[in-house]
Amino acid sequence: MKADGPVIRQRRETKGHGLRRFAAIAGLSASHLSRIERDLADPQPEALARIAAALACSIEDLRPETNGDEDAHGHGIAVHDDEGSRGAHS
After folding, report:
1. What's the pLDDT tens digit per position in 4-43?
2. Which domain holds residue 67?
3. Taking the model in full, what pTM does it have?
4. How far is CA 2 from CA 15, 37, 60, 79, 87, in A?
5. Which CATH number is 42's domain given?
């Protein structure tokens, strides 16, 4: 499940938790939490739920904003204009 790692880190730090202490509270290894916060790993849904619970927020608060650029399966949608790669010619 995709998570917004920098948001997790910011919320954790705002609550005054160090990485190792917070990882223990959330039931994760410190190295895995570090990878999640640096967007190098996506947490399993259960892990994201534990992170959200430890931060007293919802899972949705920790997911990246998509601005409608994802399809129903969470895949990015390519957007192309009608002008092709060179743009309109005058």
Report:
1. 999 999 999 999 999 999 999 999 999 999 999 999 999 9
2. 1-90
3. 0.71
4. 22, 11, 10, 21, 34
5. 1.10.260.40
